[in-house]
Design goal:
The mean pLDDT is about 95. A hairpin with a 2-residue loop joins strand 6 and strand 7. The protein contains 11 helices and 12 strands. An 8-stranded parallel beta barrel has the order 1-4-5-8-9-10-11-12, surrounded by 9 helices. Strands 6-7 form a two-stranded antiparallel sheet.
């Protein structure tokens, strides 16, 4: 019996042919750069748990956004650290809040970049939960009112895309209605549609936004990590309520959800390469256990192969410099 007709290795024999037949493509246009903004001036302080990423004051943030633009990165997502925290997270919807200040400054100086703003309460409440708490339980409908106020304050500041992170029932309908009623018909919504209650967020909360919960957890509103069908139901609801883009978060451990969501719905799909995923790679690379440079590209292609259109990643600038 002769050698089999098909020799798949023929199509792997050099980089040129591998590049020519590559099934998934990844470009700078896929990237959204997460950024953290704080009160003050002349501040650029590295975040210990997310190395290579920083807390920026508004002036330094604008400088960084200009650099991101020059690298071809099309969008940023802003997370704010408030000057004060209270029970109702009032700075989240204050027209003079830190995110609102940052949006105005960025849109004035770097108008061509897309600004996404995180709509959530956890950074702004003293208890670290995503809304109004009573008897240890997050109050759904009362929290929706705060989401609407926050959404409008972001849109008024110039946000292009508002991104609700709370997994609160009815959040997309509430936000879309508020935006349309106030004339913000073109403000887009990118929903954290399938957001799991994951420990992979810990570096973000402990060091990024300094908003670790004071008691309890977020498992009554974020999803059980064991569930997949529930994720598809959540995504369907958000699309029905008016989401323009849906997101799966975290990314690496939930590629099955990314794939199924893209296959089922075919809408613009984002994935968040979260802080814990990033920190694990950084830590292992620091110990010389892995090759970080090659692995971060593998990660991006895994997202694209699964069906993601957009990737929120702390590697955004590093990747953009090499594309």
């Amino acid at each position: 019996m002769g050698f089999p007709t098909h020799r798949p290795r023929r199509l792997r024999q050099n980089e040129t042919i591998r590049r020519m037949i590559r099934e998934s493509s990844f470009s700078v246009d896929d990237l959204i750069y997460p950024m953290f903004v704080v009160h003050g001036s002349n501040i650029k302080k590295e975040i210990d748990a997310i190395p290579g990423n920083y807390h920026f004051s508004v002036d330094k943030l604008v400088e960084e956004v200009k650099e991101a633009r020059d690298l071809g990165i099309p969008a940023i997502i802003l997370f704010g650290l408030p000057e004060r925290k209270d029970e109702l997270g009032s700075e989240a919807y204050d027209p003079k809040g830190i995110v609102q200040q940052a949006v105005r400054a960025v849109k004035k100086e770097v108008s061509e970049i897309m600004v996404v703003t995180d709509v959530c309460m956890c950074e702004y409440t003293h208890h670290g939960h995503c809304g109004i708490m009573k008897n240890g339980y997050l109050q759904n409908d009362e929290t929706l009112e705060l989401f609407a106020k926050t959404t409008l304050s972001h849109a008024d500041a110039g946000s292009d895309i508002v991104a609700p992170a709370g997994m609160i029932d009815g959040q997309i309908k509430t936000m879309r209605s508020a935006l349309d009623e106030h004339g913000f018909h073109n403000t887009m919504i990118m929903s954290y549609a399938a957001k799991y209650a994951s420990k992979l967020y810990d570096p973000f909360f402990k060091s990024g936004t300094e908003s670790t919960v004071a008691f309890g957890d977020k498992k009554t509103h974020q999803m059980d990590v064991a569930n997949a069908e529930e994720a598809l139901r959540e995504i369907a609801l958000d699309i029905e309520e008016g989401a323009d883009i849906v997101m799966v978060k975290p990314g690496l451990y939930f590629l099955d959800i990314v794939y199924r969501a893209k296959e089922k719905f075919g809408v613009p799909l984002a994935v968040y390469n979260v802080s814990g995923e990033y920190a694990m790679i950084k830590s292992a690379a620091h110990l010389e256990r892995i090759n970080e440079e090659e692995i971060k590209w593998e990660i991006m292609y895994s997202f694209k192969r699964a069906g993601a259109d957009l990737i929120l990643t702390y590697y955004a600038k590093e990747l953009a410099k090499k594309i």
